[in-house]
Amino acid sequence: MPSATLSALLLWLTACVVSAEIFRNAGFESPLGPENWSCSGCNGLRDGDDKVEGTYSMLVSERVADWAGPSQVLEWGSAVKDGRSYAFRIFVKLLDGGTTPYQVKATMNMKMKDGSEVHLMMFSTNMTAQDGWRRMYGDITVPDTYGGSVSRVWMHVAGAPAAVRFLVDGASLEELSMRESWRAEADARIEQIRKRDVILRVNTDSPESIEVEVAQTKSHFAFGSAVNATALETSGHYRDFFFNNFEWAVIENGLKWQQTDPYPFVFHSWPDTAIKMLESQGVPIRGHCIFWAKPEHVPKWLGWVDWIWDGVVTHMCRQRVDDVVGRYAER
């Protein structure tokens, strides 16, 4: 899980009280079966050779599709209720694929009485077999409108291609209850850490006529936001809202490869106006990765020209580095 997501989860947990374990056979120490863990579209066996906690983990193999994986049915209305928040964690280890990254995700799934399904994402991340065991975290709040409309609920882990086997261990699902004292404790920390005494010395014979107003103009905390370059240039309301509330920025719609290079050998620098506006206000800018190994974030033409000559992808990657690093380095 990305550090920002983990940090948000930890901040959330500081204001919450964790309840008892909801999963049955959470550590896979007892025999697997429909009363606890089943393997949807796969073969699930206890494994005593490779584990993180206790004596056993669960080996998931013979998967029929990327959705195949371990799941546990939960009791709606008792174990899981609408309007409640839940924290989930599990250790995962991929056994196939070497250094190739694969998506791993966990969802709380709900079958509604009208036949539809709802999938609440607990976490979704990429990992490789070389990563070994990784501990995954996530949390969700079940909408308080579900009530009597849910007929079945279950937790599910899957995501990697069907041929990829994996292990899971140390699962946990717990309800989060808001601590009644968290607001008072937070206010006390604000008074101690975030505030400072200020002494004003005023030389006047009529101090009762003086008004003092304090306005914060900058924050030492790195509050930031993704910025739409077009809106920043064209909308005064958008511009004012951003500069009045945030200290950092990342251009959301102008620095990815398919955005700067919509055609071969044509570099579009249209985000530069927005970048200059941010720089003029002293706003640090976070860049994007130069290459993003996802088909939807690579220029479509790169696949078209690949057949023209050997090495064209390498050549265009080098050109991409020259274009963006040469233009934006040290900015």
Brief summary:
This protein has eight helices and 14 strands.
Structural descriptors:
Jelly Rolls, 331 residues, Galactose-bd-like_sf, 8 helices, six-stranded antiparallel β-sheet, alpha+beta, disordered N terminus, hydrolase, five-stranded antiparallel β-sheet, Endo-1,4-beta-xylanase 1-like
Task: Write the SSE topology.
Blueprint: H1 3-14, E1 16-21, E2 38-40, E3 43-47, E4 57-61, E5 69-74, E6 85-94, E7 102-112, E8 117-127, E9 134-141, E10 150-158, E11 166-178, H2 182-194, E12 224-227, H3 229-234, H4 236-245, E13 248-251, H5 257-260, H6 272-280, E14 285-286, H7 300-305, H8 312-328
Parallel strand pairs: 12-13, 13-14
Antiparallel strand pairs: 1-11, 2-5, 3-4, 4-11, 5-10, 6-9, 6-11, 7-8, 7-10
Description of the molecule:
With 331 residues, the protein is an alpha+beta fold. The chain folds into two domains: 176 residues, Galactose-binding domain-like (Jelly Rolls, Sandwich), CATH 2.60.120.260; 113 residues, TIM Barrel. It is built from eight helices and 14 strands. The strands form three sheets. Strands 1, 3, 4, 6, 9 and 11 form a six-stranded antiparallel beta sheet that branches. The protein has a five-stranded antiparallel beta sheet with strand order 2-5-10-7-8, with no helix packed on it. A three-stranded parallel beta sheet has the order 12-13-14. It is flat and about 85 Å long.
